[in-house]
Q: What sequence folds into this?
């Protein structure tokens, strides 16, 4: 330590001497700028605290947010590479899987969706999509972009498929891929996964499941349920910051990827390229040969810490905490006469609860009132449900009774106010 400090001191003295010998810093080239610097950037950014309860992004876990201030590491340093392995282990744990090909794409959940579709779809592949709302519709449209022959199975908004309906769809269309959304956050519907994997084994198709709105919130057992591919994002149940999309591919899915006759179209999400960069198929010693793109080291810190926070509590306890918060929200909602949008309690998503906008009330005015009076962000629905519902997300850090009570107290006042009348 002593030798280190003395060396630093000597180096600093030498560099100060070098810099001062270099000449006058004001002796620089004079440029004529065509455009002035923006006035707005002359002031530092200021924001006020918010309770983010719209369905995501949510307020991150403290451990995750605090990690953003940690000193930056270089991207190929050993401690950074260790973070990659910690994250892989953390994702396997929250998904309850042993899948080797478990890693993180840079980009949000939609990037994960595009990545898995790109790797699994070859032009002309039949993809059966269970459409129950906005996000499953996005999945269907996105699969078309990758050349799939998409077949849509649709259910009315607010409901989901039974296993029998899914089997009938697979039997009729014999798809190569079945695409479902586990938590359709636009309508607040939960699509159970039990039995889906067995069906896909029976009829020889691959399951791709959007678990963005269920991971770290509701039970997920990827191996037990024989699910092939899932994607998610970093900012909901994993309690991190927006910008990363973890994915996991089963050995069955990887054998379809290996049989491809063409390369996936997006380099950044090519699972084989990324498996090298995440040191799953290449040793650490090859770290200078496996570059796909720069890593956002700080975002990786925050995801690592979000996952560590979940592991610290225990995933089963995290699931229970979300279930308890969900029950509490519905208990309070019943007391103030709010009608749940999803009729069957068993079909309801737990992280995001959706209620019908009461007659005579305006969902947009309620949203505004909550934000202005209480600094609480809720949502007035999404695309198909826009304006028709009040959408409340209590996810990750916010999934607890105290936060739910604060929100429901505020919502009750908002609903009683004439300012929110339509
Ligand atoms: C079910 C579902 N799928 C996909 C996404 C897209 O994720 P992102 O916004 O991180 O791209 C969302 C976002 O809310 C979602 O709720």
A:
């Amino acid at each position: 330590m002593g030798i280190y400090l003395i060396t630093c001191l000597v180096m600093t003295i030498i560099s100060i001497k070098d810099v001062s010998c270099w000449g006058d810093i004001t002796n620089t080239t004079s440029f004529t700028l065509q455009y002035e610097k923006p006035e707005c950037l002359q002031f530092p950014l200021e924001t006020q605290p918010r309770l983010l309860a719209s369905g995501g992004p949510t307020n991150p876990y403290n451990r995750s947010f605090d990690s953003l201030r940690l000193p930056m590491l270089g991207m190929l340093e050993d401690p950074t590479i260790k973070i990659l392995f910690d994250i892989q282990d953390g994702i396997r744990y929250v998904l309850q899987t042993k899948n080797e090909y478990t890693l993180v794409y840079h980009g949000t959940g939609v990037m994960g969706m595009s990545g898995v579709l790109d790797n699994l779809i070859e032009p002309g592949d039949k993809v059966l999509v269970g459409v129950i709302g906005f996000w499953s519709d996005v999945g269907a449209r996105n699969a078309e972009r990758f050349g799939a022959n998409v077949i849509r199975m649709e259910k009315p908004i607010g409901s989901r498929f039974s296993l029998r309906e899914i089997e009938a769809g697979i039997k009729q269309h014999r798809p190569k891929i079945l695409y479902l959304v586990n938590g359709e956050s636009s309508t607040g519907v939960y699509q159970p996964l039990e039995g889906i994997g067995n069906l896909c084994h029976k009829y020889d198709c691959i399951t791709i499941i959007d678990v963005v709105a269920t991971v770290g919130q509701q039970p997920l057992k990827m191996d037990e349920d024989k699910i092939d591919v899932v994607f998610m994002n970093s900012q909901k149940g994993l309690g991190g910051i927006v910008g990363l999309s973890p994915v996991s591919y089963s050995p069955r899915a990887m054998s379809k990827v290996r049989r491809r006759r063409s390369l996936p179209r997006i380099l950044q999400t090519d699972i084989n390229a990324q498996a090298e960069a995440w040191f799953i198929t290449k040793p650490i010693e090859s770290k200078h040969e496996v570059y796909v793109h720069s890593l956002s080291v700080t975002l990786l810190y925050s995801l690592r810490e979000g996952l560590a926070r979940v592991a610290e509590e225990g995933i089963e306890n995290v699931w229970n905490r979300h279930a308890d918060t969900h029950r509490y929200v519905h208990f309070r909602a019943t007391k103030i006469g709010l009608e749940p949008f999803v009729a069957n309690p068993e079909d309801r998503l737990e992280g995001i609860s959706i209620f019908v906008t009461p007659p005579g009330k305006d969902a947009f005015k309620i949203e505004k009132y909550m934000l202005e009076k209480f600094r609480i962000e809720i949502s007035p629905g999404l695309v198909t449900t826009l304006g028709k519902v009040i959408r409340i997300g209590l996810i990750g850090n916010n999934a607890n009774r105290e936060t739910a009570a604060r929100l429901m107290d505020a919502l009750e006042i908002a609903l009683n106010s004439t300012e929110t009348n339509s």
